[in-house]
Structures are given as C-alpha cells and as structure tokens.
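#struct-queue
[09:14] JT: dropping the first one here, sequence first, then the structure tokens:
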Amino acid sequence: MGRLLFRVAAGVAVVLAFFWLLSVVVGLLIWGVVVALAVGVVVLGVRMLRADSAGRGR
C-alpha cells in the first residue's frame, strides 16, 4: 500500500511539474509577442514620423 501511494504521489508531482513548465513556456511566448508588438509599433511610428518630416522639408 505504501509503494502504491508513493507511485500515485510521484505521478501527481510529475503531472503538476509538467503543467507548471507548460504554463511558464506559454507565458514566455505571450510576453515575447507583447514585446514584439510594442517594438513594431515604435518602429512604425518612427518610420511615419520620418516620412512626414521628409515630406514637409521639400
């Protein structure tokens, strides 16, 4: 009975560790997408400002 309980506890620990690791990976992917979107918006804004200032200077 003790070994069975130990195996069940080990199995539950492995499943919990797997889902925790999966949530960490998904969280990092979401943060990566958010950072990429922020960088893209900044780059697009800089390009638009440069294009606007180049058009006015002529």
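[09:21] JT: and here's the second one, same format:
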Amino acid sequence: MERFVQSIVAGGPALVAGLWLVALGGSIPRLAGIGLALLGIVGLVRGIGSEIRYS
C-alpha cells in the first residue's frame, strides 16, 4: 500500500478517536484525546500534502 494512503487511513481514525475521548470528558482522557487528535491531523496533513504537486 502506498505510504500516503497509510498516513490518511491511520490519521482519520486517530482523529475520530481523539475527538471522542475529548467529548467523553475527564482530565486524563481529555489530554490523551487532544494528543491523539493532533496526531491524526498530522497524519492526514502528511498524507494529503505528500501528493500535492506545486508547479
């Protein structure tokens, strides 16, 4: 599987799981959710950004 597809596929669920943890509350789950959501965003941006070509 292409590397950019792996980044997108891993980033999407990580973002969703992180947002669920933030929504469920609690101090430690909320912090873990923020971190997981940030990692998901990084994965999505990395995967999408690697395929954009600027001329």
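[09:30] RK: nice, looked through the second one.
[09:31] RK: The first helix runs from residue 3 to 24.
[09:31] JT: good to know. The mean pLDDT is 93.
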